[in-house]
Design a protein that fits this description.
InterPro entries: Acyl_CoA_acyltransferase (IPR016181), BioF2-like_GNAT_dom (IPR038740). This is BioF2-like acetyltransferase domain-containing protein. Pfam families: Acetyltransf_6. By secondary structure, the protein is an alpha+beta fold. Strands 1, 2, 3, 4, 5, 6, 7, 8, 9, 10, 11, 12 and 13 form a 13-stranded mixed beta sheet that branches. The two termini are about 20 Å apart.
């Protein structure tokens, strides 16, 4: 086995990466160009680690090398070796509820654990004595079993909302909900459709968007609701969104007033099996926003999911009670902390 470390800011695409991405059915945020664009503006930029055998890539890890916030706002230059203690996080920064590791379909379940241990030993050698340990985020139950072991802390932290798509249309989905919820969604849909002061537009690869306005709206929304505990991510920038939202596998839904003011935005990551409701931002009602836009965004998401015929729609880890009223179930999510002394063991 060969383990490679790839800085998407400066290194070329790993050989066989497009083929592996397709076979492993990875979401758009795993695209190497997307990871590189995110890395240039991230305080803790992602590094792609690949494990390769004679037939190609068998495993991949998205790794954030994280530093205490007391120092720099931005990342050090590529190739800079950290001198202060730090830790590494295996995660996909903008894919809520999904892990930062993936395996080729030909890898049997019994071989995942040895591959993870090989990765940990290589990471420890690569990053040096300052590495305190590794934190795996957003693991499903199967991957949580693979990282368990002596001296490792594996904990159920929360859940990701998953809606199993067994519907032929969004109307069938609405009909499956409780009487009060389906009545509210239908009234709201009619109200928005008849509102001349609201412009609703959605689609893939949109070229008509002001990425700076969208970035500001997403950031303001997250600041109002508070940062996630121990969040090592950097907010998406206008430069990142300018290119990301133009991808054909990224759908953007916008709600705009007749004056052109952006009132809400939602991104949807396309995928052959599992659509992802990703970034959401909205203007508060007391600041000129509209009531009910979040619910309406779910109608649009399910309209696309049913037309696409995908297996499921996922919607992150927040507001679980609200999402349950929309038919979502909770899929357990685990975190695993692996201190340096047991890395690779």
């Amino acid at each position: 086995m060969k383990i490679g470390f790839h800085d998407p800011r400066t290194d070329p695409v790993p050989p066989g990466w497009p083929e592996f991405s397709a076979l492993a059915r990875l979401h758009p945020v795993w695209d190497y160009d997307v990871m590189g664009l995110d890395a240039w503006i991230a305080r803790n930029p992602p590094v792609l680690v690949t494990v390769t055998d004679d037939a190609g890539i068998v495993a991949a890890f998205s790794v954030l090398v994280c530093r205490p916030r007391v120092r720099y706002r931005f990342a050090p230059a590529p190739g800079h070796r950290l001198l202060r203690p730090f830790w590494a996080e295996v995660c996909q920064p903008w894919l809520s509820g999904y892990p930062g590791l993936a395996f080729a379909p030909r890898v049997p379940a019994v071989e995942r654990c040895p591959l993870i241990r090989d990765f940990e030993r290589a990471l420890r050698r690569r990053l040096g004595p300052g590495l305190l340990g590794v934190l795996y985020r957003a693991l499903g139950e199967e991957f949580a079993k693979d990282v368990r072991g002596r001296g490792r802390l594996v904990k159920h932290v929360d859940s990701v909302a998953v809606l199993d798509n067994r519907f032929g249309s969004e109307d069938e989905w609405i009909a499956s909900l409780t009487k009060s919820r389906r009545g509210g969604l239908r009234r709201q849909r009619r109200r928005f459709a008849a509102d001349p002061g609201l412009v609703v537009k959605g689609g893939p690869g949109r070229e008509d968007l002001d990425s700076a306005e969208i970035a500001a709206l997403i950031q303001a929304h997250r600041e109002r609701h508070g940062r996630v505990a121990l969040d090592a991510r950097t907010m998406p920038s206008a430069a990142f969104l300018h290119r990301f939202l133009r991808r054909p596998d990224v759908h953007t839904l916008t709600y705009t007033g007749v004056d052109g003011r952006l009132l809400a935005v939602n991104t949807l990551l396309d995928h052959p099996d599992s659509l992802v409701k990703q970034h959401w931002g909205t203007v508060p009602v007391d600041e000129g926003g509209r009531q009910g836009l979040l619910f309406d965004s779910y109608i649009h998401a399910m309209s696309y999911a049913t037309r696409r015929g995908v297996k499921e729609l996922t919607a992150g880890r927040g507001l679980p009670e609200l999402k349950a009223t929309l038919g979502f179930r909770a899929r357990p999510v685990y975190s695993a902390a692996v201190p340096r002394p047991v890395l690779g063991w």
